[in-house]
Amino acid sequence: MLERILFKLWYSLHRLPLTWLHALGRMLGRLYTLIPNRELRITEINLGLCYPGMDEVERHQLRNQTMQQIGCTLMEMSAIWFRPLDDVLAMINTIHGEEHLIRDEGQGLIILAPHIGCWEIVGVELQRRGRLTNLYRPPRKESFGDLVKQARERGGAELVPTDNRGVKRILQVLKTGGMTGILPDQQPKSERGAAFAPFFGHPALTMLLTNKLARKTGAKVILACAERLSGGRGYDIHYLPAPEGIADADPLRAARALNQSVETLINMFPTQYQWSYKRFAKQPDGIPSPYKIQP
Where located (predicted)? Predict the structure, then answer.
């Protein structure tokens, strides 16, 4: 019952101006820095791993800013999912690197969009450019999963399951000049079809799906993120070229190139990255997870 009430309250927020939503998000983030919680703990561990040379005071500030940005992500999601598409597109201020979307006739396009800023609005922007087919893993709560799926498909995108059937559909789409978006900073469920590669200098289980799709279809690979502008001014979308190594025949070199490209984007907007994700949970044999609480 409480969960349903909270959801209805969150849904009703989508009518508020973006300035208000982000202000509420920053307030929520500040609250999260005052009480012990999972997101705060994981963020602190990840920042310590990825920026070991950073001054402690500076890293503390980065942690606090990150928590505020996480709050903004939560609040703005109601607007991105439930406002009319034209209103959502109007939130986009400037699109940088649009030329990187250009490819040969009939060539597919793979867009790597890490969890930076408002990644949901990248999908909305891409849907107006052509056929977009994405892999989709439903949340644990089925009713909420239906809502997310409807929100992401309302602009014409196609969501397919994260299984062999879904990958086959993605291959078909890319071979016929369509697009697919991939979240490259997610840890694969198993080591099959993945490789350990450095991410900010630490082993991270890294997907090889992008490499396989690019090699089998000849699709072009680019990077994308939506920078959240201050003062509720909306978002700037950035499209960047991906390093050639992503399509390399050597899977380890491809995984290294993918992680390096994600690092590049994160370093552009470090406060807007989702540092609360357990990116290093799975480690090579003999190396413990950094998230396990030591006795």
Answer: Cell inner membrane
Q: How many Å apart are CA 146 and CA 203, to the nearest integer?
A: 35
Q: Name the percent of the chain in helix, strand, coil, to the closest 5.
A: 50, 20, 30
Q: Which value, in Å, is the radius of gyration of the alpha carbons in the chain?
A: 19
Write 33-36 long-range contacts (CB < 8 A, 24+): 33/63, 33/64, 33/67
**Exposure string over 241-257, b if 16+ CB within 10 A, otherwise e:** ebbebbbbeebebbbbb
DSSP 186: S
pLDDT digits (tens, 9 = 90+) for 169-213: 999 999 999 999 999 999 998 888 899 999 999 999 999 999 999
Task: Please give the full DSSP string across 196-234, using - where no structure is assigned.
Answer: EEEETTEEEEEE-HHHHHHHHH--EEEEEEEEEPGGG--
- Please report, for residues 59, 63, 64, 205, the alpha-carbon distance to residue 43 in angstroms, rounded to integers and kept in the order given: 10, 7, 10, 18
Q: Which of 44, 97, 108, 75 is nearest to 264 (CA)?
A: 97
Q: Which residues pair with 203 in a beta bridge?
A: 198
Mention every residue, 6+ apart, whose C-beta is less than 8 A from residue 202: 49, 50, 280
pLDDT in tens, 216-232: 999 999 999 999 999 99
At 5, list the tokens: 């009430």
